[in-house]
Amino acid sequence: MKRSEKTHMGGKNEAFCTTQWTQILDARTLDPDRQRQTVDAVVEQYWKPVYCYLRRKGFDNDKSKDLTQGFFHEVVLGRDLVTRAERDRGRFRTFLLTALDRYVVSDHRGKTALKRRPPEGLVALKNVDYVNIPERAAAATPDQAFAYAWATDLLDAVLAEVKAYFCDGGKKKHWDVFHATVVEPCLEGIAPPPLSETCRRFGLAGKLKACNMAITVKRRFKKGLWTHVRAVVDSDDDVEDEIAELMEIFSGRRA
Amino acid sequence: MSNKESTFGITLKGLTDLLGVGVGIDPPQDTASEDRAAGELLGARLAGTLPLDTAVVNALPAIIGKLQAELMPLAGRPLGEALLDDKTELSAIKRIKDYGKKLAAGRDSKANHSSATAIYFSAIASALLFHGQRITSYSYEHLRESFNELIEETWIPPKLARHLSKARRLCAKKRRQ
């Protein structure tokens, strides 16, 4: 076997990635306005997995919203997080889920401190359009529902960035080919279209051209996915493990 | 992305597939003919079944029990399926490994050798992942490097690349213990 060069996907410590831990810890040192902005950013990014978990736990919409508010205010942005972050960070997704599970138990025992929450609630959650887990994933366990919302938010963010990169860069057709041959089949649960059909649809010279365009976008997608996952894990080595773990959760091999 | 294009609503399988795109391996823009041949040959072998060992077949009357133990685990299943199934028995995986080793020893094309080596190491990966057994005298470090080299080959199918990637991580952990 020949030794080929490693696929370049960022590499160890090649780019500084602001981890989610860093963002939250930094929030405590900012002035009140910037702190509020950071808090809102964190909540906006992670409310959906938390809310979906609570709905799958059996809480109704109102109770789930209330618990989501309480969780972010008392746990994620609270003092305990700093201690945890300084001691042992680990993967942010796993930390959030473990903390959420404990919070639900505490709430059940009546131990949550409702009185400490600001009366106006968290700004970022005020105008949120709460959603239900889609029917297709309705059989999910609460942990799967959490991971589902987490992963779909992650993929939406990556796909949006990749789309913008190619469309704004004058290569919309590249994005369109990738979307038609990779994204759409996954979204619709159908087989990818034959390359000949893709060539006809987008006016391409031949199958190799279509392949190359899809691969070009795919490389960008992979890099984007790596960057986003890297922001919520401790090291470069954890990125692949995190993605593999998510895949195992959805394939049913891990609860 | 618009709501229409959001992945929220996707099936669990679709979600797994899309995540898999993020860890899969792509062929280069212009695949060299040798790599393409290795990929095609590997694909054909993975889709095929293990050939009967003619020596075993000839001795059937005397060793019916042994034959059942050796052949039933595979029972005509495609090699690729057997390699990636965690229910495949260890004895069957060992047979696949030996099959790959025998093929690789042949003095024909590079494509033949490459695809046979892939089968050989994939079987070792299966034994590690599904049975916790190292069915080779290679060290974990050697295996980690071998899996890594295979993963980087452009002609390795994505599912096999992911399988080898899991085995690579396991070997890295074992090496640190």
Summarize the structure.
The complex is a heterodimer of chains A (255) and B (177). Chain A is mainly alpha-helical. Chain A has eleven helices and no strands.
Q: In terms of topology, how is this protein built?
A:
The complex is a heterodimer of chains A (255) and B (177).
Chain A: H1 20-27, H2 32-56, H3 61-76, H4 79-87, H5 92-108, H6 123-126, H7 142-168, H8 172-188, H9 195-202, H10 207-230, H11 237-251
Helix pairs in contact in A: 1-2, 2-3, 2-7, 3-5, 7-8, 7-10, 8-10, 9-10
Chain B: H1 12-23, H2 33-47, H3 54-58, H4 64-71, H5 79-84, H6 90-104, H7 110-131, H8 140-151, H9 158-176
Describe the structure.
The complex is a heterodimer of chains A (255) and B (177). Chain A has 255 residues and is an all-alpha fold. Chain A folds into two domains: 15-132, no CATH class; 134-255. Chain A has eleven helices and no strands. Chain A starts with 19 loop residues before the first helix and ends with a helix. Chain B is mostly helical. Chain B has a domain at 32-48 and 78-176. Chain B has helices at residues 12-23, 33-47, 54-58, 64-71, 79-84, 90-104, 110-131, 140-151, 158-176. The longest helix of chain B is centred in the C-terminal third of the chain and has 22 residues, at 110-131. Chain B is globular.
Give me some keywords for this one.
heterodimer; A: mainly alpha; 2 domains; 11 helices; B: 177 residues; mainly alpha; 9 helices; 0% strand; globular
